Amino acid sequence: MSVTLDMPVTQKAVLDKASIRRVVVSSWIGNSIEFYDFLLYGLASALIFSKVFFPTVSPMVGILASFATFGVGFIARPLGGIFFGHMGDTLGRKITLLITLGGMGTATFLIGCLPSYDMIGIWAPVMLVILRFIQGFLVGGEWGGAMLMVVESVPANRRGLLGAIPQTGGFSGQLLATGIFALVMMLPDEQLFSWGWRIPFMLSVVLVLVGLYMRRRLDETPVFQEVRRREAQSKQAKKEESPVVKVLRTQWRSIVLIMLLRFAESVPFFMCTVFAVSYATGTLGIEKQTMLGVVMMTCVLAFPMHALFGALSDKVGRRPVYIFGALFAAAMAFPFFWLLESGSFVLMVLGYVLLINIAHNSINAVQPSFFTEMFGPKVRYSGASIGAQLGAIVAGGFTPFIAKGLTALDNNDWTLVASYVVIAALVAAYAAWRAPETSKRDLTKDPL
After folding, report:
1. Quick one: which of 38, 134, 206, 307 has the fewest CB in 10 Å?
2. Type and span of the H or E element at 378
3. Residue 68, number of CB atoms within 10 A of its CB
4. Cα dihedral sign for 441, 444, 447, 448?
5. What is the DSSP letter of 196?
6. How far apart, in whole angstroms, are the C-alpha atoms of residue 360 and residue 364?
7. Contact in structure between 448 and 254 (CB atoms under 8 Å)
8. What pLDDT was estimated at residue 235?
9. How many DSSP H helices and E strands does the chain contain?
10. What DSSP string describes 296-358?
11. pLDDT confidence of 5, banded at 50, 70, 90?
């Protein structure tokens, strides 16, 4: 049974169960596709691109250059957050998400079509960087909107749990990208580096069509509709300043908090899924297929862990869960590398479970509800997107590059990398301690 928008929309279910289920599933599918596209690039940068696009430099420089192009996408993300945040707060969540999804799929497909350095020289890496920038720009508007579609549509006492489900799209995308990459990695090197690596990128078109179909069936969120209804009824309606300008002027502290909060999530994740894969295969001599298998196990376990921590945040609050995850990440950084050095599949899986499935997943599950609840309805898309994507630059995009550079400074030793993870996690734990508890807020009203 549905209820009307005249009721407090964050206190009761404003949609019937079927509609809520459709919103959650469609956001999960869309998020999975977006992260499939984005994370596929991470795997390719660790295993393929140094030879295809940077073959004239040393292996170390080639890996650094490849990881640098991975980071370019993160530079573009805040710009996408600003552009699409404004669009989402003024024109609506739905139309914005259709644009980001379609554009992302197109950019990914074109990466799969790029000629190699041997074919066209320097123009090959130049075009790779341009397409990577476009990818990042579109992802910058995707995450905030996908999370808002859920958080603004579900009952207040289930925002943590139901908001955490689409967040597993990062792992669905990683699982899909890793699985397909594992298959193409079975090809002989000559075929792999000529055409095999292109297959996962080109398959993005099929996935995007599915996502667009799902999103076209959605309505705007009840919160967005309620705000528009109130504006229409207001006798003192007036033209307001841009949502981006307003949120930067009035809630810049929340944006800074989100940037710091992302350190405990992004640094361990990209260290494990991009840098550690390259380090294990290149320095420790572990088989590529073994590392891909470890990553896939981690992705499978992410689904129940997100549900667990999301539901827990509905009961005890967002801050306690976030602080726990950040401190656990700091504690597990060094044990992760000890277990990785063992070369044992079981022990490596254990290391990934501790750092990703417990530490990272507890943080990642809370972010959709925690970040979006910090802002008022008229600037929520802009605020959550800008904060998250600015944090992504500092905390995520250049983590593989920084980690590789730290090992180069320390004779290929991982100690400085683990220390970097500890510092990042402690910074986020402090930010979570300073952040307000948001789990009880009414999303139709501005925060006090």
Report:
1. 206
2. none
3. 18
4. negative
5. I
6. 6
7. no
8. 54
9. 23, 0
10. HHHHHHHHHHHHHHHHHHHHH-HHHHHHHHHHHHHHHHHHHHHHHHT--HHHHHHHHIIIIII
11. very low
- CA Rg, the chain, in Å? 21
Across the range 384-401, mean pLDDT stands at 80
Tokens matching residue 149: 């579609």
User: Residue 445 phi/psi, 5° resolution?
Assistant: -120, 155
Give the separation between CA 215 and CA 51, rounded to whole angstroms: 38
**Could you write out the DSSP letters of every residue in 197-255?**
THHHHHTHHHHHHHHHHHHHTPPPPHHHHHHHHHHHH-TT--PPPPHHHHHHHH-HHHH
Give CA–CA dist 286/352, Å, rounded.
15
Query: Nearest Cα to 146, choosing from 31, 302, 22, 19?
Result: 31
Query: Do residues 175 and 14 lie in contact, with contact meaning Cβ atoms separated by under 8 Å?
Result: no
Tokens of 447: 């925060």
User: Which residue from 126, 188, 137, 223 is spatially nearest to 441, judged by alpha carbons?
Assistant: 223
| DSSP structural state of residue 12 | S
Contacts of residue 292, defined as CB under 8 A and 6 or more positions apart, other chains included, come to: 178, 181, 182, 185, 277
Contact (CB, 8 A) for 367 and 391: no
* CA 376/CA 82 separation, integer angstroms: 16
CA-to-CA separations, 276 to 172, 279, 351, 387, in angstroms, rounded: 20, 5, 11, 27
> How wide is the angle at C-alpha 270 spanned by C-alphas 268 and 273, nearest 5°?
105
DSSP symbols for 150-181: HHTTS-GGGHHHHHHHHHTHHHHHHHHHHHHH
Looking at residue 71, the DSSP 8-state letter turns out to be H
Q: Which helix (H) or strand (E) holds 433?
A: helix 415-434
Chain segment 335-383, per-residue pLDDT in tens: 999 999 998 999 999 999 999 999 999 999 999 999 999 998 888 888 8
Q: Which two tokens stand for residue 343?
A: 């070369």
Answer with the residue of higher pLDDT: 224 or 245.
Answer: 245
H or E segment and range at residue 279: helix 276-282
10 pLDDT band (50/70/90 cuts)? very low
E-strand ranges in 5-97 read: none
Question: Could you give the domains of the chain?
Answer: 17-220+242-434 (1.20.1250.20)
Mean pLDDT is highest, among 152-156, 166-170, 193-197, 366-370, for 366-370
